What we know:
This protein is an alpha+beta fold.
Amino acid sequence: MANAITSPTYDPITTAKNLATNLVAAQKAAVTAQSTLANNTTSALNSLRSAMSDFQSAMTTMTSNKTVLSQAATFSNPAVGSATVGSKATPGTYSFFVQQLATASQTSYSGLSAVSPAKDAGTLNLKFGDGSAGNTLSIDLAAADKDGDGILTPQEIAAAINGDSKNNSRVTASIINIGNQAQLVLTSNLTGKDNAVTIDTSNTANAGVGNAALQAALSNSANVKTIVGAQDAIVWLGAQGTGTQITQASNTFTNIPDVKLTFTKAMATGDSPITVAVATDTTSTIANVQAFVDAYNKLKTMMDSLSNPGDPTKNVDPGIFAHDSGLNALRSSMNDALRLNLGGVSLVSYGITAQRDGTISLDSKKLTTKLAADPASLDKIIGNNSLSAPAGVLGKLSSVLGQWSNLTKGQITQRLAAADTLQKSLTKSMDRLNTQYDSAYNRYLDQFSRLQVLQEQMSKTSDMFDAMFSNDKS
């Protein structure tokens, strides 16, 4: 008997897929690996840019404050007042006696419940201080009748005063009800006798109140009550009566350069003057310096992770920039910037020192000691990162980082552009490989499909011969 031809056991589709895959597998793996590296590089560069931006923002914050030093003014009796101190304040101790505080006027007017028709109301003139030019406010009372009922109520008078475009928040009119009587209350929003507000009821042209009943009510001394009288603040530099008297409308004094003193309590006659000491605020200054140290270390830690050489013995993979000479050069330049020495003064002088791992630390005790001896040189060595006149350590660091972070020509921008170009090229390469795969798959599928048909035909022919030459005819 003839040997039977075995039918094919393979699947043309699977066979075509396997052969086409094997044809491009090595090239696809290479392109995929390059694409993964490019993606990881882009991600790492963006993280580095973000970390640099955070550090540069921290430097800008220090620069915008004009100084790392924090100044403070301390009252011997905090109940008497408080202070804010700027960077240019000169240390010193000052004596003050607060004779009286400035107050804002507040006056109530009663007898206004029954007001004649608005059309006869005329003009209400408010006077600030002596009522000199520019210190008056004229209110058209006829226009104040907003509901148009012809009756002018105290509430409408108050609304007209508050809503006048020339008021400029100098005075606030309000209504208080006592019994069945509505009283108009005028409160000056500025302290001092020159800001006292009163109603001028004189019947001069375009200045007074035309309605006789309203004018009479406002002019009646029995209806007018001074709730708070306006007065200026009186403060003595030194003792009361023997020092230098300072009189002004506000309770905030700026007689000491870059220091604002706000007095909140008057003193009793015979009291000893209080003292105000302006000096460096060591605690806040330490916090400012520590903020710089923390910001630098955060960036340094990020850069270290990206350039970590790795440790195979501990299964620690290397960072993506482990062998990047550019990043290593940047780290070295940053270290050099920290070592800046100006006339024998350095960060080390103020307790800022480098650690073994490249981070920096602050010795607050050493900083405190140095501040007591030479506070001014701290700003000199720290410097600033301004674009116009960078100086000190911040200026050096800003220059070094700018070579990487500059948005138009910095290293990060250039590298991101290169990574993007590479990704586009790799995408095209992968597209070509996919086309090559499709072509090979279709070719193999056609070939093995034909082969399968041929083998099926041969198998049928073999079966026919087996039937013709079966054993019973042998």
